Amino acid sequence: MRQLFLAATGQNRGKTTASLGLLDGFRRRGFNTGFMKPVGQRTLIDDGQVTDDDSYLMRVVFDLPDPYSAMSPVHIPRGYTKAYINGEVVDDLGERIYAAQRHFADHDILLIEGTGHAGVGAVVGLSNAVVASMLKAPAVIISEGGVGRPIDEIVLNASHFEAHGVPVAGAIVNKVRIEEQPGIERTLERGLARHGIPLLGVLPYRPILSNPTLEMVLEGTHGKVIHPGADLDRVIDGIAIGAMEPNHMLERVNPGTLVIVPGDREDVILTLASAHVADRWRALPGTVEQIDALVEETPGAIDAGPEAKALGILLTGGYEPRPEVLEAVNQAGMFCAIVPDDTYTVASEVHDLLVKTHAADKGKIEMIKALVWEHLLMDRFLEVAAEARFG
Question: DSSP readout, 294-336?
Answer without folding.
Answer: HHHHSTT-----GGG--SEEEEETT----HHHHHHHHHHT-EE
